Amino acid sequence: MEISWIYAIISVIIVSLVSLVGVFILSSRKSLLENNLLYLVSFATGAILGNVFLHLIPEIVQTNGFGLEISLYILAGLLTAFVIEKIVHWKHMHKAGESHVHPISYLILIGDGIHNFIDGMVIGAVYLTNIPIGIATTISIIFHEIPQEIGDFSILINSGMTRAKALFYNFVSALTALLGTAIVLVIGSTTPSLEGILIPFAVGNFIYIAAADLIPEMHKETELSKSAIQFLTFLAGIGIMLVLALG
Predict the structure, then answer these.
(1) Which chain regions cross the lipid bilayer (predicted)?
(2) Number of domains in the chain
(3) Burial level of 211, CB count in 10 A (0-12/13-18/19+)?
(4) In 133-148, which positions are buried (b, 16+ CB within 10 angstroms) versus exposed (e)?
(5) What is the Rg, in whole angstroms, of the alpha carbon atoms belonging to the chain?
(6) Is residue 49 part of a domain?
(7) Eight-class DSSP state of 95
């Protein structure tokens, strides 16, 4: 087994285990969780954008140049993220106070499963290209997944699931990332052009997540002191990606 395969498999297992972050909700006070989540989202935004502009795009340019075809792959990644989010946003159909499990919960899980599958494919593709960039991509995915999984876990609970079931189904949904990685590692080793498609696709996906989901969340905070800390954690996320790029 190639070293890149080992890195990819370990990385996707770690990303999948992030879905268990719901456990911490069970032992955390709501106010404490919300305060930490604010800065975690800021850090995740910086890490994702740092990974895109300091790792992935330079790798694309160095390997394939940057022409119309690459731009189309990036747009495809952005549009795919938009469609997946449209599906997940149907969660707002949920009516508070229902005692049974709302069917929309399972739609959320399906949407997350697709998203995790794509994350897994991206991890596999990037590691086949460059191990250090694979590590940076894994870190950015992890810091995006933590606030997302906390939110998903909360939604499932509010939709009528027990905590144990919500945690279990959320974890099963996360395991689709393993499938995505496995497919890319097997196919990618015989089809080198696959990385040339998936890496720009990931760029579009990440840009959409940062611009459409995370940055609007950051703007909800208007208190000056908290906004300053938020900006610093945003820079810290970029800083970690810069250190990895220079290293």
Answers:
(1) 6-26, 38-58, 70-88, 124-146, 167-191, 197-215, 227-246
(2) 1
(3) middle
(4) bbbbbbbbbbbbbbbb
(5) 18
(6) yes
(7) -
Structure tokens at 196: 């040339």
Q: Does the residue 26 lie in any domain?
A: no
Judge whether 72 and 59 are in contact, CB under 8 Å: no
- Is the pTM here over 0.85, yes or no? no
Q: Which domain holds residue 65?
A: 3-17+31-246
100: left (phi over 0), alpha (psi -120 to 50) or beta: beta
- Phi then psi dihedrals of residue 123, to 5 deg: -60, -45
Whole-angstrom CA distances from 3 to 8, 100, 131, 183 are 9, 47, 9, 17
Is residue 22 in some structural domain? no
Answer yes or no: is 7 within a domain.
Answer: yes
pLDDT tens string, the chain, 247 residues long: the values are 588 899 999 999 998 888 777 666 655 555 655 667 778 788 888 888 998 999 889 988 988 889 999 999 999 999 988 887 777 666 555 444 444 555 556 666 776 787 788 889 889 988 988 899 899 889 888 877 776 677 667 667 666 777 778 788 888 888 899 999 999 988 876 666 777 888 898 899 889 888 887 888 888 888 999 899 999 999 998 998 898 888 6
